[in-house]
Design brief:
globular; mainly beta; OB fold (Dihydrolipoamide Acetyltransferase, E2P); five-stranded mixed beta barrel; about 120 residues; 2 helices
């Protein structure tokens, strides 16, 4: 079991700057799990409407919701951030060849015009 200390990203711009990939996602469907820090993160097949940062050639990408693994299992303190039917901004980074949200709490934001306008691309 690994217990990590999470960096904080208080603004959407901070999340954008820290992410390797930022996408507008219109839907996400569960797609198994991905191992990270000794836990099995919930993985999703994410439908991408727009790539705001990073390189992505496909309209879909597999992204896992970074869990808090301190208990040895995937836990999501504020709920699984990708388990929604609402459009999202997804802030992702690569770990061992897999895409993951930045942290258990800072990997997504509701997609709105204001949210989109708040990040400098």
């Amino acid at each position: 079991m690994s217990c990590v200390s999470w960096a904080g990203f208080p603004t959407l711009q901070d999340k954008y700057d820290a992410a390797d990939l930022v996408v507008v996602a219109s839907s996400a469907a569960r797609d198994g799990t991905a191992p990270v820090f000794g836990a099995d993160a919930h993985a999703y097949d994410v439908r991408v409407d727009d790539v705001l940062k990073g390189d992505l050639d496909e309209p879909r990408v597999r992204i896992s919701a970074m869990p808090d693994p301190c208990s040895g299992r995937a836990e999501y303190p504020e709920g699984d951030p990708l388990d929604t039917s609402e459009p999202l901004l997804v802030f992702a980074t690569v770990q061992d060849g897999e895409w993951f949200t930045l942290t258990p709490t800072d990997g997504t934001a509701p997609f709105t015009k204001d949210a989109l306008d708040s990040v400098v691309r």
